[in-house]
Specification:
Strand order of the largest sheet: 2-1-8-7-6-5-4-3
Organism: Duganella lactea
Order of helices and strands: EEEEHHEEHEHEHH
Distance between the termini: 88 Å
Protein name: DUF934 domain-containing protein
CATH architecture: Alpha-Beta Barrel
CATH class: Alpha Beta
Number of strands: 8
CATH topology: TIM Barrel
Number of domains: 1
Structural class: alpha/beta
InterPro entries: UCP030820
Strand content: 15-25%
Low-confidence stretches: none
Mean pLDDT: 87
Shape: elongated
Length: 192
């Protein structure tokens, strides 16, 4: 099996993780039950609902660093509160590039839940998103398969300065740059 490339930090690297996705339900066919889906051998990033349903079954593989989780945009990262240290990485899914809920999930994982490990963006991840994704705490990006990962890497340096505070820069621009003191006002003749 050939490895695929991802962006990790500020470089393109080979990735040995696979993302496990449950089949979407279709008319006439039952949906896959997260409690009964078998996770193949190897390093897999599994859906949060699958991991929660099979937590005891996957405990040894999670502890061995072979199982990580991905969070869907309609799921809450708080479901992992107190459990984060078990995972080698956490991924956040972007089913469509226009769905921005993953940014809030990443921000909350970093700021409210204290996640310090690898935070990966998966799904419909495009170059134009990477700079903003980094701002909210992502440090790894699985770019959409039909896009050039080397070109997408350039998206991390599209801008040289940020105005707002965020995960990557705690102080807003107006607080980072010293302003000159206001010029002394000449009040000669004031009140005449």
């Amino acid at each position: 099996m050939s490895k695929h490339l991802i962006i990790k930090g500020h470089e393109v690297v080979e990735d040995d993780w696979q993302v496990l996705r449950l089949a979407e339900p279709v008319e006439g066919a039952p949906a896959h039950d997260p409690a009964t889906v078998a996770v193949p051998e190897g390093k897999f990033i599994v859906p949060l609902n699958l991991w929660l349903a099979q937590r005891d079954v996957l405990a040894a593989r999670t502890a061995a660093g072979e199982i990580a989780v991905w969070i869907a945009p309609d799921e809450r990262p708080e479901a992992l509160k107190g459990l984060l240290e078990q995972f080698p990485l956490i991924a956040v899914d972007f089913p469509k590039f226009t769905d921005g809920r993953g940014y809030s999930i990443a921000y909350n994982l970093r700021t409210r839940l204290g996640w310090t490990g690898e935070l990966r963006a998966i799904g419909d991840v495009l170059r134009d998103q990477l700079f903003s994704m980094r701002r909210v705490g992502f440090d790894a990006y699985a770019v959409r398969a039909d896009r050039d990962v080397h070109d997408a890497l350039k998206g991390l340096s599209d801008f040289s300065e940020t105005y707002q505070a965020s995960v990557d820069q705690k102080v807003p621009l107006f607080r980072r740059h010293a302003r000159p003191a206001p010029a002394a006002v000449n009040n000669d003749g004031a009140g005449i």
